[in-house]
Amino acid sequence: MKQKSFAEKLTLTFKLLSKRHPAIPYLLKWILISLLLGGLIGTASAIFLQSLEWATQTREQHLWLIGFLPIAGLLIGLLYHYYGKDIASGNNLLIDAIHQPSEKIPFRMTVFIYLGTIATHLFGGSAGREGTALQMAGGIADQFSKPFKLSAEDRRTLIIAAVAAGFGSVFGTPLAGAIFAMEFFLVGRLRYNAIFPAFAAAILASEVTHLWQVKHTVYTIASVPDISFLNLAYALLAGIAFGVCAAIFSKTLRFVNQIFKSKIKYPPLRPFVGGVILILCILVLGNTKYIGLGIPTIVESFGQQLPPYDFAIKLALTVLTLAAGFKGGEVTPLFFIGATLGSTLSIALPLPVALLAGMGFVAVFAGATNTPLACTIMAMELFGSQCGIYVAIACVVSYLLSGHTGIYEKQIIGEAKHHRFSRDVNKWIGDL
Question: Residues 6 or more apart from 79 whose CB is under 8 A from it?
Answer without folding.
Answer: 112, 115, 116
